[in-house]
Amino acid sequence: MFKYKGFRLTAFIVYSFGNKVRLDNVFSNRYTDMVATPREFNNRWSSSGEEEVTTVPVIPSVRQNYLNPNLGIAYSAYNYSSERVAKGDFIRMKEISLDYTFPKLWIEPIGLQNVNLKLQATNLFLIYADKKLNGNDPEFFNTGGVASPMPRQFTFTVRLGF
After folding, report:
1. Residue 49 has what DSSP assignment?
2. Parent domain of 140
């Protein structure tokens, strides 16, 4: 909390460290034109030698699938490998508020004891989360559709004391 004259700035930061998150099983040996692929596919193997710079597997061709009928097992193994685990650590700006209390000298002539204005924002943003999550919220990642992330909230409060 920081105070200056009639202003007060308050920040509330929460954190969690030490847990792991299994990323979604999005890799397969077969895709159709109707499948929406995640952003991770931009970093996949696409030509010889790229296995030195990326761990994201290639999308195999129809011919490769025909020649190797067990290719699906390799993609399943990749989905459940440690490569598909991210840190669940995060630091979040949970709440920040700015308020101003008017000086009594200004408000007593109009019959008020105190006047306070407050602007408050809740669930603003993540300060830190693992890059492997690709912008997903680690608190609500892989919740099975049961929970949704908390929305940002903005509140303006006027308090008058008579």
Report:
1. T
2. 2-20+88-161
